[in-house]
C-alpha cells in the first residue's frame, strides 16, 4: 500500500494539471483504499488467533538489514488516522483551493508523497527504514509549508521547520546506530521483546534511547523546539489540518508509544518526558490565550496537546497507555475539524482575526456547529469522545498513585484548565456577535467543502457514547505491555463510570477553565504584566544570525577570488593532516620495487615529462593537451597490466575531458595569466613537491599494511556464478555494487542539471534549432522539440521571424554546415562525421550489450555515443547537433534514472531483494548460448544517463556558448556602427574583418592585462 501512495504521487502532477482541483477527488481514493485495507485486516490482527500482518523485503542483506513492514495493534490505530483523516483532507482540498491556485499540481504530488511517507513510518519495523520515512516527512513537510513560494513568511517558516526537525532527526539517527550496534538488531519488535525481558540495558543503551527521544521531541514540537509549529501555520489550512494535527506531529508521539513498553524504566526516560511534556502543555496553553489569529490560537493549542500526549505516552503501562490512545484519536478528530473550519471561516470572512469576526453563527451555521462541538470535545465536555478520553486520563493517573503519576495528574489538570479557556475563547472569537464589528455576510456553503469537517464532527459525537466499542482495539495493544501494579490493565473505556473522583476533577477543570474565559480581559492584563520568559523563537533567530555572521567572516577571509590561494590552502591542509598521520604511523611495511616491467618505466617517464611540461605551458590549450597526455599514459598502463575495461573507459573519459576543456576555453583568454599574488613559482613548486611526496609515501605505506584479504578476491567468482558475466568490472557496477553505482549516477544527474541550470539562466530547453528548408525555397531555422527563445540585440534579431513556416525537407546532405563561417568550415570533417556517426552509435550499443562479458558496458557505451555527438557538433556547430540529437537531455536523464530505479524495485518484485537480478539462459541458433539478465536494464539506464549528460554538456558549453559569442559579435558590430557611423562604402566584409580583429585581440589578452582590455 505504501507503494500505491508513491505511485499516486507520481501521477498526481499530470492528473491535477489535467483535471484541476477536481483531481483531488480521485487522489482521495488512495488513502481511502489504505483505510479500507486497514479495516479489512481487523479479523487477522484482532481475532482470536490474531497476529500482526508482516511483510518484508530484502534491502541490504550483507548488513543484515531488511525492509520490514508490520501492521500490529498500535500501527493499525495510527494507520486509521493517516488514511482516514488524509482522505477527508484531500476531499477538502478539492474545494478549498481556487481553480487558478498557482503550483496546485505540485502541491498535490507533494501532499500525496507526504501521506505515503507517514503511512510507511507507522508501518516500518526496522530502525533505519523508519528513519528514512521520518526524514521523508520532514522534507515533504518543508515543501508543503513553503507552498506559497512568493511569500517570504512561508519560506522562512518552511526553512525553520526543516532545520529544527532535521537537527532532531540527525540526533535520532546517531541513537539508532548506537542501538543497532549494541544490540545487534534493528528490528523494533525484537528490540522491545528483548528490552522488556531486561536483556538490553547499560549506559550505551540509555544514551542511544535519549538521542532517539531528541528526534521525537523535535518532531512533536515539545519545548525547546515548540516554536516551529506555530510558525508553520503559514502553510495552507489543509496542511495544518493534516501535518500539524493528525499526522506529522503525531510521529513523535507514535515513536514514544512504540518504545515506551521496553524503555520506560530506563534512567532519564520518565524524568525527561514528564518535564518536557508538562512544560510544553502549560506554555502552549498560556500562549494560546494570547493569540488573536484563530489559526495561531489552535497552533499553540496543538503544542499544548502534544505535551499532554507525550506525558501520557511516556508511562508505557497498560491503563495509562489506553487513555493516551483514546486521547490521541480524540485529538486528531477535533483538531483536524477545527483547522478545516478555520479555513472555511478565512475564505468566507477574509480574516482569521477574532477581534474582526462577528456573526459567525448566522453566516455559516454548519461550520459553527461543527467547530463548537470540536471545541467542546477539546475541552472535555460530555458526551463527546474528548470527555471520555479525559476521564480515562484522570482515572488511570489516580489509580496508578505513584509519584510520577501524581505529578503528571496535577500538571495535566492545570494544562486542561487552560485548554477549556482557549477553547471557549475560540468559539466566542469565531462565531459570536461583537459590538462595533460588522457581521459577516451569509453565503451558501458547498457540501464538498463542509463534508470533511462534518464527518469529523460526526465521529467525535458518535465515539463518545460508543467509546466502549473501541476499547477492545486499544486493549489488544495495551494487553501486551508490561504490568507493574497488580491492578494495572483492568481499566475499560466508557462514557459513564459513575460518581468517581475523576468526574469531580473534570468538573473542577471545566469550571476553572470557563472562569478564566469569563475574566479574560483581567487575565490578559495579568499576562501582559508578567515577564514573557525565554523566547525560544528569538533564540533560534539569534543562533541563525550568529551562524550567518560567522559564515560571512570566514568567507571574507578565505574566499579571496584567487584560485591559487584556494588550491594552496587545500594542499597545505592535506600535507599537514596526512603528513602528520604518516609520521605517527609505526606499522610501515614498505616493499620498494622500481618497476615490474620496462613498460612501466616508459609510462612513468611520460608522466614525469608531461607533468613538467604542464607547469611550463604558457597557453591554456597547450596545458590542457599536455595534461591529457598523462591520462593517455595511464591508458597504456592499464593495458599493460591486463585491464582492458579500465583502459577503454580511461581513454573515453580523457578524450571527453579534453573536449569539455576546449569548449570552456573558447570563452577564456588564450594565454595563462601571470599571478600577482603571494604564491611565487618557487612556493608553488615547494607546495607541489610536498603534496607529491606525501601521496607517494601514503601509497607505499597503504600497499604494505594490508592484514586481511580484500573483498575483491571473491568478485571473480561472484561475477561469473551469480552475475553470469566474465567482465568483473561491469558486473560489479551493475550487480555486485549496484547501490554504489545508483548513487554515482544520481550525482551525475544532479551535476548535469546544476551545470545546465547555471548556464541556461532563463530556461534549460530552447536553443537547439535545425536548419531546414522553407516552402518558398529559402533556408532558415526550425524547431526540434525545443521551444524557440527569441533573442534581440540592438537591431539584430537572432531568430528568423519566419521560422514557423518551415518544412522538414532538406535541400542538401550537409545542410547544417552552411551556417558556419567559411573560415571555420571543413567539408572533409562534415562528411566524415556524417559517415561514421551511425556506425559509432552501433558500436556504442555493442559495448552496452557486450559489456557483461567483454570490455564495455553502459558507461563506456554512453561515452562512445557522446563522442559521436561531439564529432557532429564540432563538424557543423549547434545546427548539426540539433540534426543529430532530436531529443532533450532532461528526457534522457530522467528516463535513465527511472529505468535504474525500476530495476531495483523489480528485483524486489521478482526476487527477494532490491536490485535482485534474474537471468534467462538458452541456446539460440547462430548466436549460440546466451544469458540475459535484468541487470542489463540498469546498464541501459546508465547508458541513457551518460548520453543525456553529454548532450547537456554540448548544449550548455557548446550551443549556448555559441549563442553568447554570436551575441557579442552583434553587440560589437552595433557599437562599431554607432561609434564610427559607417558609411555606405564600408562593405560588410570590412565590417566583419574589423569585428574579427577585435575578437582575436580580446581572446589573446592575459588575465591581468586590464589596461589593454579597457582600451579595446
Walk me through this protein's architecture:
- With 1016 residues, the protein is mostly helical.
- The chain has 39 helices and eight strands.
- The C terminus is likely disordered.
Quickly describe the structure:
68% of the residues lie in helices and 4% in strands. By secondary structure, the protein is mainly alpha-helical.
- Assign a percent range to the helix content: 55-70%
Order the strands across the largest sheet as they lie in space. 1-2
Report the strand count: 8
- How much of the sequence lies in strands comes to under 5%
How many individual helices? 39
Summarize model confidence as the mean pLDDT: 80
Instruction: Estimate the global geometry from the Cα principal axes.
Output: globular
Report the uncertain regions: 763-767, 771-812, 1003-1016
The Rg value, from CA coordinates, equals: 35 Å
Multimeric status of the protein: single chain
Mind summarizing the main beta sheet?
2 strands, antiparallel
Structural class: mainly alpha
Distance, first to last CA: 67 Å
Amino acid at each position: 500500500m505504501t507503494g500505491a501512495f508513491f505511485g499516486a504521487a507520481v501521477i498526481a502532477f499530470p492528473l491535477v494539471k489535467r483535471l484541476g482541483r477536481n483531481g483531488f477527488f480521485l487522489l482521495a481514493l488512495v488513502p481511502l483504499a489504505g483505510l479500507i485495507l486497514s479495516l479489512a485486516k481487523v479479523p487477522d490482527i484482532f481475532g482470536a488467533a490474531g497476529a500482526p500482518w508482516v511483510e518484508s523485503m530484502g534491502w541490504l542483506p550483507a548488513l543484515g538489514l531488511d525492509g520490514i513492514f508490520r501492521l500490529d495493534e498500535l500501527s493499525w490505530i495510527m494507520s486509521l488516522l493517516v488514511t482516514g483523516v488524509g482522505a477527508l483532507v484531500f476531499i477538502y482540498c478539492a474545494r478549498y483551493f481556487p481553480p487558478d491556485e498557482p503550483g496546485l499540481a505540485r502541491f498535490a504530488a507533494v501532499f500525496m508523497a507526504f501521506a505515503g511517507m507517514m503511512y510507511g513510518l507507522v508501518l516500518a519495523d526496522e530502525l533505519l527504514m523508519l528513519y528514512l520515512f521520518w526524514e521523508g516527512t520532514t522534507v515533504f513537510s518543508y515543501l508543503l509549508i513553503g507552498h506559497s513560494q512568493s511569500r517570504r513568511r512561508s519560506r522562512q517558516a518552511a526553512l525553520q521547520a526543516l532545520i529544527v526537525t532535521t537537527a532532531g532527526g540527525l540526533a535520532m539517527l546517531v541513537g539508532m546506530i548506537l542501538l543497532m550496534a549494541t544490540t545487534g538488531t534493528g528490528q523494533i519488535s525484537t528490540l522491545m521483546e528483548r528490552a522488556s525481558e531486561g536483556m538490553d540495558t547499560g549506559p550505551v543503551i540509555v544514551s542511544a534511547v535519549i538521542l532517539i527521544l531528541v528526534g521525537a521531541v523535535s518532531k512533536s514540537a515539545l519545548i525547546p523546539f515548540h516554536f516551529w509549529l506555530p510558525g508553520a501555520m503559514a502553510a495552507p489550512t489543509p496542511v495544518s489540518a493534516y501535518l500539524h494535527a493528525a499526522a506529522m506531529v503525531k510521529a513523535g508521539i507514535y515513536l514514544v508509544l512504540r518504545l515506551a513498553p521496553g524503555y520506560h524504566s530506563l534512567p532519564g526516560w520518565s524524568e525527561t518526558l514528564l518535564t518536557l511534556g508538562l512544560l510544553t502543555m502549560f506554555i502552549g496553553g498560556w500562549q494560546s490565550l494570547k493569540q488573536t489569529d484563530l489559526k495561531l490560537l489552535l497552533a499553540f493549542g496543538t503544542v499544548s496537546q502534544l505535551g499532554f500526549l507525550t506525558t501520557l505516552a511516556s508511562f508505557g503501562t497498560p491503563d495509562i497507555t489506553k487513555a493516551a490512545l483514546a486521547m490521541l484519536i480524540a485529538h486528531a478528530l477535533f483538531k483536524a475539524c477545527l483547522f478545516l473550519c478555520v479555513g472555511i471561516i478565512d475564505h468566507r470572512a477574509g480574516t482569521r482575526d477574532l477581534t474582526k469576526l462577528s456573526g459567525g453563527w448566522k453566516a455559516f451555521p454548519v461550520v459553527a456547529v461543527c467547530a463548537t462541538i470540536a471545541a467542546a470535545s477539546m475541552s472535555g465536555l460530555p458526551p463527546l469522545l474528548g470527555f471520555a478520553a479525559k476521564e480515562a486520563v484522570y482515572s488511570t493517573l489516580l489509580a496508578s498513585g505513584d509519584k510520577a503519576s501524581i505529578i503528571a495528574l496535577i500538571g495535566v489538570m492545570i494544562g486542561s484548565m487552560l485548554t477549556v479557556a482557549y477553547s471557549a475563547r475560540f468559539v466566542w472569537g469565531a462565531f459570536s456577535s461583537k459590538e462595533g464589528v460588522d457581521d459577516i455576510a451569509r453565503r451558501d456553503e458547498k457540501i464538498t467543502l463542509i463534508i470533511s469537517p462534518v464527518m469529523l464532527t460526526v465521529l467525535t459525537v458518535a465515539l463518545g457514547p460508543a467509546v466502549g466499542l473501541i476499547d477492545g482495539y486499544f486493549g489488544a495493544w495495551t494487553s501486551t505491555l508490561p504490568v507493574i501494579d497488580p491492578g494495572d490493565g483492568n481499566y475499560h473505556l466508557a462514557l459513564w463510570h459513575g460518581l468517581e473522583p475523576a468526574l469531580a476533577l473534570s468538573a473542577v477543570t471545566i469550571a476553572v477553565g470557563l472562569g478564566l474565559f469569563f475574566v479574560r480581559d483581567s487575565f490578559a492584563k495579568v499576562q501582559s504584566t508578567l515577564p514573557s520568559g525565554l523566547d525560544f523563537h528569538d533564540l533560534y533567530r539569534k543562533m541563525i544570525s550568529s551562524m550567518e555572521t560567522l559564515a560571512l567572516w570566514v568567507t571574507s577571509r578565505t574566499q579571496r577570488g584567487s584560485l591559487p590561494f584556494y588550491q594552496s590552502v587545500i594542499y597545505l591542509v592535506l600535507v599537514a593532516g596526512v603528513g602528520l598521520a604518516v609520521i605517527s604511523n609505526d606499522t610501515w611495511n614498505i616493499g620498494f620495487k622500481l618497476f615490474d616491467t620496462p613498460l612501466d618505466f616508459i609510462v612513468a617517464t611520460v608522466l614525469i615529462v608531461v607533468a613538467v611540461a604542464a607547469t611550463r605551458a604558457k597557453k591554456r590549450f597547450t596545458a590542457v593537451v599536455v595534461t591529457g597526455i598523462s591520462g593517455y599514459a595511464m591508458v597504456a598502463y592499464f593495458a599493460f597490466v591486463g585491464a582492458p575495461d579500465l583502459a577503454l573507459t580511461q581513454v573515453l573519459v580523457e578524450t571527453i575531458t579534453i573536449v569539455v576543456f576546449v569548449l570552456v576555453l573558447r570563452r577564456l583568454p588564450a594565454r595563462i595569466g601571470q599571478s600577482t599574488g603571494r604564491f611565487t613559482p618557487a612556493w608553488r613548486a615547494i607546495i607541489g613537491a610536498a603534496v607529491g611526496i606525501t601521496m607517494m609515501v601514503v601509497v607505499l605505506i597503504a600497499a604494505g599494511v594490508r592484514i586481511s584479504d580484500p573483498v575483491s578476491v571473491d568478485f571473480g567468482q561472484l561475477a561469473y556464478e551469480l552475475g553470469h558475466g566474465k567482465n568483473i568490472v561491469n558486473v560489479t557496477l551493475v550487480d555486485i555494487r549496484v547501490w554504489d553505482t545508483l548513487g554515482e549516477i544520481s550525482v551525475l544527474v544532479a551535476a548535469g542539471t546544476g551545470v545546465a541550470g547555471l548556464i541556461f539562466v532563463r530556461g534549460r530547453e530552447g536553443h537547439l534549432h535545425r536548419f531546414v528548408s522553407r516552402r518558398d525555397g529559402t533556408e532558415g531555422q526550425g524547431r526540434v522539440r525545443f521551444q524557440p527563445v527569441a533573442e534581440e540585440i540592438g537591431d539584430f534579431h537572432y531568430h528568423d521571424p519566419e521560422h514557423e513556416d518551415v518544412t522538414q525537407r532538406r535541400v542538401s546532405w550537409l545542410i547544417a554546415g552552411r551556417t558556419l563561417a567559411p573560415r571555420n568550415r571543413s567539408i572533409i570533417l562534415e562528411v566524415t562525421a556524417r559517415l561514421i556517426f551511425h556506425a559509432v552509435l552501433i558500436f556504442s550499443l555493442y559495448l552496452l550489450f557486450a559489456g557483461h562479458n567483454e570490455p564495455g558496458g553502459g558507461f563506456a557505451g554512453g561515452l562512445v555515443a557522446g563522442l559521436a555527438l561531439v564529432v557532429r557538433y564540432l563538424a557543423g556547430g549547434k545546427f548539426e547537433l540539433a540534426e543529430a540529437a532530436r531529443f532533450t537531455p532532461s528526457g534522457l536523464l530522467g528516463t535513465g534514472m527511472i529505468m535504474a530505479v525500476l530495476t531495483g524495485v523489480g528485483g524486489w518484485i521478482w526476487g527477494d531483494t532490491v536490485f535482485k537480478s534474474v537471468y534467462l539462459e538458452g541456446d539460440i541458433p547462430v548466436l549460440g548460448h546466451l544469458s540475459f539478465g535484468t541487470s542489463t536494464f540498469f546498464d541501459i539506464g546508465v547508458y541513457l544517463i551518460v548520453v543525456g549528460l553529454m548532450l547537456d554538456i554540448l548544449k550548455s558549453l557548446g550551443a549556448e556558448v555559441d549563442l553568447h559569442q554570436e551575441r557579442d559579435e552583434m553587440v560589437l558590430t552595433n557599437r562599431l556602427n554607432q561609434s564610427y557611423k559607417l558609411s555606405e562604402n564600408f562593405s560588410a566584409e570590412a565590417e566583419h574583418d574589423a569585428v574579427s580583429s577585435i575578437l582575436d585581440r580580446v581572446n589573446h589578452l592575459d588575465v591581468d592585462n586590464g589596461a589593454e582590455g579597457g582600451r579595446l
